[in-house]
Amino acid sequence: MILNYYGLVSGIQTERNIDGPSDKFLQKLEEQTGYAFNQVSLDEICQQDLPIIYIKSGGAEENFLKFYKKLKSPILLLTNEYHNSFAAALEILAFLKSQGIKGEILNGDIPYIYSRIMIYKKINETNNAIKGARLGVIGKPSEWLIASQVNYTKIKSKTGIELVDLEVSELIEETKSCHKIDIEKRNQLLQSGFSEKEVSECLKVYGALRDIAKKYNLSGLTVRCFDLLATLKTTSCVALSFLNDDGIVSGCEGDIPSLISMFILNKLTGEKVFMANPSGINVKDNSIILAHCTIPISMCSNFSLDTHFESGIGIGIKGEIPVGAGTIFKLSNTLDEYFVSSMDIKENLNDKNSCRTQIMAVLDEDVKYFLKAPLGNHHLVIEGDHTEIIDSFFNQK
Predict the structure, then answer these.
(1) For position 323, what pLDDT does the model report?
(2) What is the spatial distance between Cα 9 and Cα 39, in angstroms, rounded to a whole number?
(3) How many Cβ atoms from other residues are within 10 Å of residue 92's Cβ?
(4) Which of 176, 180, 303, 183 is nearest to 241 (CA)?
(5) What is the pLDDT at residue 13?
(6) Distance between CA 10 and CA 64 in Å, rounded?
(7) Model-wide pTM > 0.85
(8) What is the pLDDT of residue 75?
(9) How far, in Å, CA of 175 to CA of 25, rounded?
(10) Cα 142 from Cα 147, distance rounded (Å)
(11) Other CB atoms within 10 Å distance of the CB of residue 49
């Protein structure tokens, strides 16, 4: 793999004076990262989505002023320990901040420098992946999501994501068609002991949603799922689980901010996402209980089936998430605010008075956030600690 950069020195320095230490530093970078660092022209670096400017010496600030407006943001300032490289980068980054331009200095040990470059590369890939993506909204958000309304135009302007409105009636009509269902998925459900009739009904919803996603070229969707209880006498819990495992990011209750954040988290971290209701907190031990009736089965170490909690209709999924490191996230309906915390998933619970999949986790951030400044109900859970890349992504603009 190749990483392009543009080398910058001061007007009073010569390449000959600084090339030795600079080359030695780049050689160490290449040896320890496995990447080839390739110097390109100024015109080429200005075309890069992720411009890396290698500040080789102090006094480079004046030369930087000649072209910085042509660079895309964020600007990465690679530095070493020689010739006042770091000192110059400090002045340059302070200037960029004063101009409202995002940037970061890459300095420290090589593993740290490498990790930051990789995070920015993944952010760039995610931006490209979500730009132009189409996400389906099947039915309007449920009435209780009063803090989750969004402005479609602003969403597209900020993210490049296009929201596509569809009617629940189209989904209901589509369930009447014949859909080919993977036999392994069917058997996976039948082995749970649920009736074949119930399994068949929820798989009709899965097949219908999968084909609607294909028809409208959707990368993800959210469903006003409670409408299906009265009309189809079943739920979308299994359908959404299977769709997520198929790579079609899918959420419940027509919750658009949750769908957008599920989609971004999936592209950013590669992890499947559990969309859950916070069911209670314990301020004393900084813990939270999270629960919902659907979860991507691939996230589960084990799972069983039960009815949908609120209605007792259809099939809900009682999944067990591996204990250990996790991340909880919530994005506001304007996409301007977010909450993120690493957490330790302690156990899977079995409370009959809550949604079927239930976990208890201890957060690193203060759980009083939920009492004093919540951004809404549904919060998202992924396995592993991804707080650094999430913070970097949502602070990039």
Answers:
(1) 98
(2) 13
(3) 23
(4) 303
(5) 54
(6) 9
(7) yes
(8) 97
(9) 61
(10) 11
(11) 14
Q: In the chain, what is the straight-line distance between the N-terminal and C-terminal CA atoms, in Å? A: 27
C-alpha to C-alpha distance for 56 and 62, rounded to whole angstroms: 13
Residue type, 320: E
- The answer to whether 323 and 346 have CB atoms below 8 angstroms apart is yes
The predicted structure's pLDDT at residue 18: 62
Q: How many residues does the chain have?
A: 397
Q: Residue 211 corresponds to which amino acid?
A: D
Structure tokens of 67?
Answer: 């072209």
Q: Calculate the CA 87 to chain-centre distance.
A: 35
In whole angstroms, what is the distance from residue 170 CA to residue 186 CA? 24
Q: Of 64, 268, 19, which Cα lies nearest the Cα of 77? A: 64
Rounded CA-CA distance 304/40 in Å is 56
Distance between CA atoms of 124 and 101, rounded to whole angstroms? 16
Backbone angles phi, psi at 22, to 5 degrees: -65, -45
**3-class DSSP string for the chain:** CEEEEEEECCCCCCHHHHHHHHHHHHHHHHHHHCCEEEECCHHHHCCCCCCEEEECCCCCHHHHHCCHHHCCCCEEEECCCCCCHHHHHHHHHHHHHHCCCCEEEECCCHHHHHHHHHHHHHHHHHHHHHCCCEEEEECCCCCCCCCCCCCHHHHHHHHCCEEEEECHHHHHHHCCCCCCCCHHHHHHHHCCCCCHHHHHHHHHHHHHHHHHHHHCCCCEEEECCCHHHHHCCCCCHHHHHHHHHHCCEEEECCCHHHHHHHHHHHHHHCCCCEEEEEEEEECCCCEEEEEECCCCHHHCCEEEEECCCCCCCCCEEEEECCCEEEEEEEECCCCCCEEEEEEEEEEECCCCCCCCEEEEEEECCCCCHHHHCCCCCCEEEEECCCHHHHHHHHCCC
- Cis peptide leading into residue 74 (ω within 30°): yes
Please identify every stretch of the chain with a pLDDT value under 70, giving residue numbers as ranges. 11-21, 397
